[in-house]
Amino acid sequence: MDTRFYLDVNRFAMRTAWAHGVLAFFARPSALGILAVVLALALARARVTGFGGSDIDQIAALVWAAIGTALAYAISLPIVHLVGRTRPFVAMPQAAVLVARPTGFSFPNDHAVIAGAFAAALWLSRARLMAAIATLVAIIVAFALVYSGTAYPGDAAGGLLLGTLVSLALYPFAIGSLRDLAHAVARSPLKVLVGGGHHGGAVGPGPASRPTLVGESGAVRILSPEEVRAGRTKPSGHAGPARILPPGQTGTGSILPPDETGGISILPPRDAGSGSGAGTARS
């Protein structure tokens, strides 16, 4: 069946000379350069996002796309020699071949392994647009290999499947370490490599963003410079006037909440020590 499908596609190739140029390009190793460009674009987008403190984890997953693809290719090498399937143009010399005839065995096809592993890894990184592009490229590469006469349909499909399985299966074992590494780089002088210093998500409000209420008043009012110089506060709805002593007369004192006294003053240490309990402040 594999041979029949190969011959059907080969005959279709001989009738569609207008498509030879494009599909012959995708059947050559140079077509894999498109995947390198896709990875670079995905990293650039993730790195720019990283300046806003968004997601360093995506950068780690994109690094896995490169590592996982290399591992899938390495795993395919012994399988190729173990299976030892001859190229279709060797078994069928009458087949039309549109590119330079590659050497070596046929199953699984190494170009398809690389394309499949890379596309699967990009889906894991949540870079959906780049993953969709890589998937389309992988499908075109697999078809072009058969169309150009260098691989059986089973060789191309087997390569896609092997690359995908390796990328998905090894991802859980590697992504934890890659994330730790990416976050460590984000905290190091090399943080520019991953897009800046914010690496843990959006920064939440700090303690200073929640002003502490004065006593039970429920309101905070900022004094004008004239009021500060005068040393008096204007009365508010719940708190009476308060007297602020100049810095030379203040040390450490006690303040009573407004609900316990109509107006309060900060006493210097010598006066605060003369009383006890509520006597540490006078109204």
Molecular structure report:
- Helix content is 53%, strand content 0%.
- By secondary structure, the protein is mainly α.
- It has 2 domains: 2-194, Vanadium-containing Chloroperoxidase, domain 1 (Up-down Bundle), CATH 1.20.144; 220-267, no CATH class.
- Helix 6 runs antiparallel to helix 7 (128-147) and helix 7 (128-147) runs antiparallel to helix 8.
- The longest helix is centred in the middle third of the chain and has 34 residues, at 153-186.
- The chain is elongated, with a radius of gyration of 36 Å.
Compact overview of the structure:
The protein has ten helices and no strands. It has 283 residues and is mainly α.
Looking at this structure, what is the CATH superfamily of the largest domain?
Phosphatidic acid phosphatase type 2/haloperoxidase
Query: How many helices does DSSP assign?
Result: 10
Query: Taking all residues together, what is the mean pLDDT?
Result: 75
Report the order of strands and helices: HHHHHHHHHH
What distance lies between the first and last C-alpha atoms, to the nearest angstrom? Answer: 100 Å
The second-level CATH architecture of the largest domain is Up-down Bundle
Tally of strands? 0
Q: And the CATH topology of the largest domain?
A: Vanadium-containing Chloroperoxidase, domain 1
